[in-house]
């Protein structure tokens, strides 16, 4: 008797049906992004339910915005998002390798190979592939390295202006900060519609001063960040009706006035609060020539604090003595109000080495895509600086596949091992397909030339179709991106193949009396 016979209103797919169903879902996801791969990849138009559109060839953006319900497809999308979170690039490659790995694995199972042997072979194949990949790594030892420039340019999809901005930003920030675990170069990118793409040595607050009478520009001043409201502690309305309560409220207001004057004596030129600044505090700040900005987002004041060295405080800390309060402030070189974009641009001191990269364009759709491109370039450059580079254009994967084929397994795990070999060929196959070349012909030529020259960098020049050394053409990929893509693909392939059946869970019934 099957599980289906003994369950009530529960849908069950036995193993083969589950396997085929899951494979179909994975294939559909793979087909959605594979046309974007490589220098000749095309774009995808995403349309939301309200008619809004987004045109992109960024794999993770396509995957994250797709309307997907199938659980196997969601596993793949979650893996791609993890790839993006870890290294910021390579999601399309990871998706394509994973999709091929699942498809090849299913084919082997349908031929009668025990699934556990296929999984065993995939696990061994991925481990060996990562070993071979490490042997191809070329270290990047200087931020002026041509390899870094090429990697940024490829990730920026040949947008030289965006790649140059990313490279300049990396050099300003410096090598030590680029390797800091908590720092992501891509987080320094913001999009501004109607602006030119540019780099500023500072940060941007997308708010305006509370009062137009406040200063429009400041030079070499100190700033204070308040992670709180700038207003007296409130007393409830009932207490205000008593003389004691009323006097207490007046005392709190006078205390705030004294604290603001103390701030002015410390040379504070601007205050950034993440909540409300009350009316009389606004008037006093204006009289004292201090810029007051309320409603600053957490991301923005975190960036400002990081740049200036300011430590965000609560309003209660304003009562501290001046000697204790001063170390909590930050220093800036210049502050400028930009009326056109209704924002405040804050420039850091030369030794602060802080940058903001602006992705600009005239329309919302284009500026959004430029932001994604610049973030990809920043992530790729940082990954290359952290882990080095390997030959790009699918040549590294082809080299690994060739070397794995020379050392096959001798038991039934070979069938899963062979799945990894075929999956590693897929990026080059798809790159050639997107460039309009015969992929079978090009794969054979690449394998033959790699073996003939004993080279790991032989691939296809997508402009001419010639078989060339891609490292000599400056086509490189970050090692960490490739490492994570192969590892992620292996994990997805194993996870999907291990699913023995699909069972729809019953809905939890909540009784009316429990609701109430």
Low-confidence stretches: 1-13
Number of strands: 17
- Morphology call: elongated
What is the mean predicted local confidence, pLDDT?
A: 90
Radius of gyration: 29 Å
For the sheet with most strands, the description reads: 6 strands, mixed
CATH superfamily of the largest domain: GroEL-like equatorial domain
Count up the domains.
Answer: 3
- Strand numbers in spatial order across the main sheet: 6-11-10-7-8-9
Strand content: 5-15%
SSE topology:
Elements: H1 3-6, E1 12-13, H2 15-34, E2 44-47, E3 53-56, H3 59-65, H4 71-87, H5 91-110, H6 115-135, H7 146-155, H8 160-173, H9 175-178, E4 189-193, E5 198-200, E6 202-205, E7 217-226, H10 237-240, H11 243-265, E8 268-273, H12 279-287, E9 291-293, H13 298-308, H14 322-325, E10 330-338, E11 343-347, E12 356-361, H15 364-387, E13 389-391, H16 395-405, H17 414-435, H18 439-453, E14 458-460, E15 467-469, E16 476-478, H19 479-497, E17 502-503, H20 512-515
Primary descriptors:
GROEL, domain 1; alpha+beta; GroEL; elongated; six-stranded mixed β-sheet; 516 residues; disordered N terminus; GROEL, domain 2
Folded structure, characterized:
Helix 7 packs across helix 8, helix 16 crosses helix 18 and helix 17 packs across helix 18. Helices cover 51% and strands 15% of the residues. The N terminus is likely disordered. It has 516 residues and is an alpha+beta fold. The two termini are 41 Å apart. The strands form six sheets. A six-stranded mixed sheet has the order 6-11-10-7-8-9. The protein has three domains: 249 residues, GroEL-like equatorial domain (GROEL, domain 1, Orthogonal Bundle); 81 residues, 2-Layer Sandwich (GROEL, domain 2); 153 residues, GroEL (3-Layer(bba) Sandwich), CATH 3.50.7.10.
